[in-house]
Amino acid sequence: MRVFLFLGLCGLLCAEVRAQTDAGEAILAVLEAQVRDWNRGDVRAFMRGYKVSDSTTFVSARGVEQGYEKILQRYLRSYPNAAAMGELKFEGVRVWLLSERHAVVNGQFVLTRRAASGTEERLSGYFTLLFEKTHEGWKIIVDHTS
Fold first, then answer.
1. Greatest C-alpha distance within the chain
2. Distance between CA atoms of residues 128 and 142, nearest Å
3. Which of 37, 52, 57, 94 is least surrounded by CB atoms within 10 angstroms?
4. How many CB atoms lie within 10 A of CB 26?
């Protein structure tokens, strides 16, 4: 009887680890797609990683933007073309599954581009993202980037 209980608990544990692995892989795939879209100079495609909602929130040193459309417009103003967007990389990304529907992700962004003077500039900072699993997949609902 104890053997069956032990095996049952092991099975549940393995299922939980697999669910966390699947969710983590799906979230990392969202971030990888964002990097590809950014590096192609496509802000609108990059924004597919965000939930289309009035409550989606972006927080930075410049303040808080709430609502998918406002966040999109902020990105379009700040990065009007591929040259302004440069090349994006994410480093040290870690995913914590909070529940079946929510996860926290943090890491560092590194943006390399040509400055107006023609010299290469490197911008970097850290981000914390809150993801929600929606019917469209995992989406960012809060982005705090500094």
1. 74
2. 8
3. 94
4. 15
Q: Measured between alpha carbons, how far apart are the two ends of the chain, in Å?
A: 54
pLDDT above 90 covers what percent of the chain?
83
- The list of the chain residues with pLDDT below 50 reads 3-19
pLDDT value, residue 2: 54
CB-neighbour burial class of residue 49 (10 A; exposed 0-12, middle 13-18, buried 19+): buried
- What is the C-alpha to C-alpha distance for residues 118 and 32, in angstroms, rounded to an integer? 28
C-alpha 135/C-alpha 130 separation (Å) is 16
Count of Cβ atoms closer than 10 Å to residue 38 Cβ: 24
